[in-house]
Design goal:
Blueprint lengths: L1 E8 L16 E3 L5 E13 L5 E11 L4 E11 L8 E14 L3 E9 L2 E11 L6
Parallel strand pairs: 2-8
Antiparallel strand pairs: 1-3, 3-6, 4-5, 4-7, 7-8
Length: about 130
């Protein structure tokens, strides 16, 4: 299984994900700890021998390698049409994610205990106009 594309998005309206553009990799927090809300949207490509329910494990890691938050869920990989590979499209909401300090973080995504994707994130203070 591979991650074909991914992005991080902030919600623009109730129950709507705006998945256009390139997403973001920085969060500008006026103070820390900062609580953020965002979405991870991805298309995963799989071979026909990977059909079935998959365990998804996600970890938010700080710059020192410490796990700040983790979650587990499952998602289905459905049987493809003859001669094709299959796709799994996922959208995961992250609400109430707390970043305790400014600096580097990363989101690590695992499917059935295999790391599929790492998303780097940096939490910064907003620039001041001086």
């Amino acid at each position: 299984m591979s991650c074909r594309y991914w992005t991080l998005w902030q919600r623009e309206a109730q129950a709507t994900i705006n998945a256009r553009g390139i997403g973001f990799d920085e969060i500008y927090a006026p103070y820390v700890p900062w609580t953020a809300e965002f979405w991870y949207v991805a298309q995963l490509n799989a071979h026909r021998n990977e059909v079935g329910s998959k365990v998804l494990h996600i970890e938010l890691i700080d710059a020192d390698g410490g796990v700040i938050a983790a979650m587990d869920d499952t998602f289905p990989v459905i049987s493809p049409r003859p001669g094709e590979d299959t796709k799994a499209r996922i959208a995961i909401a992250f609400a109430g994610v707390s970043f305790p300090q400014y600096g580097a973080y990363s989101l690590h995504f695992f499917a059935d205990h295999h790391e599929m994707h790492v998303v780097p994130l940096t939490v910064r203070a907003p620039a001041t106009n001086e």
